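User: Okay, second chain of the day. Same drill as before: sequence in, structure tokens out.
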Amino acid sequence: MTAKIMTLLGTRPEGIKMAPVVKEIERTDNLISIFVNTAQHREMIDQVLDLFQLVPEYDLNVMRPKQRLEELTMRLFQGITPILEKEKPDMVLVHGDTTTTFVGAYAAFLQQIPVGHIEAGLRTNHMYSPFPEELNRQLVGRLATYHFAVTEANKQNLLKENVAEKNIAVVGNTVIDALLEITSRHYQFEGELASIIHSTKKTILVTTHRRENIDELKHVYRAIQRIVEQHEDVQVVFPVHKNPLIRQKVMREFVDMKQIYLIEPLDYEEFLHVLKHCYMVITDSGGIQEEAPALGKPVLVARDTTERPEGIDAGTSKVVGTSEEKIVALCEQLLRDEAAYNEMANAPNPFGDGYSAKQIVHTIQSLAEETRAIYQRNTDEVIYR
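Assistant: Same drill. Structure tokens below.
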């Protein structure tokens, strides 16, 4: 029996992590792929789709300058619902914790279409950390029928929330599938970045973008200043997020700082190859906590909480918060203590082995008849409110 699977995404992280799934669905004989790009992040998602040679069946183009989350939510509902009504998919796949994810899951729920949640079960259990992602993923956890968890710990989070065990599959993270594909390709840096990356200095890759961190970032930036002042053989590559508040703080803190290279956001391919060549990472991103260990790069997490404690437990990452002293101390240790560095760099990556998309699609195939039966039963009984 053939099943129609609708995949929804709209941001760069979603595009990266869903690309292996979309491609696997497209090459599976008994599955029909309906790929919807909401373009929540227009320019950044386009780069990813080009890289993976993916063309959506629908492009909602919802991004607007300075758009509030309320406006974005409204546009997404208005764009997604007519597609669901027209296509009548057997399952809707959403990823992670974005506004596209939440609205897509809720819109499908209102049509009584089963939802599959990829990267399910991540939790900090702090509603505003990260904001709005933590509540988005908790809400999707209630709306979804099927849950594709990255780790056993994620599964346990879902079980604590009374999700049926039969509806949870631990599959690893598709970001590792994408990373291994892209970093296996030959890549040549150009311009100033080529001379930076190929210098003999140890490169610290820095990224910051979390809304809840904005007022505390000055402590992170001062720690970075101290590190480069104390180490002539260290340089920092800092792709600066497009958020105007972040950019303003970064530019103010790092005026004319030698050894610190403030650059525009990198496309996914270039970023991965910078990551591949760097010495270590300081970040408040979630995805990099999974990507860096696959390339043997220690990660210092500049947040007070992380929804990826598996990296902490495995030894690939350490939470440093926004404490200037803690960041400096741990950087000093990793720069001076080879054994401490190797312990983190060589720790096994708990987030995946590169076969997550295949596992997800295999599970979907086994669910095809069940999801079709659920949809048929629900559409026969649906009451519009």
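The mean pLDDT is 92.

User: Thanks, on to the next one.
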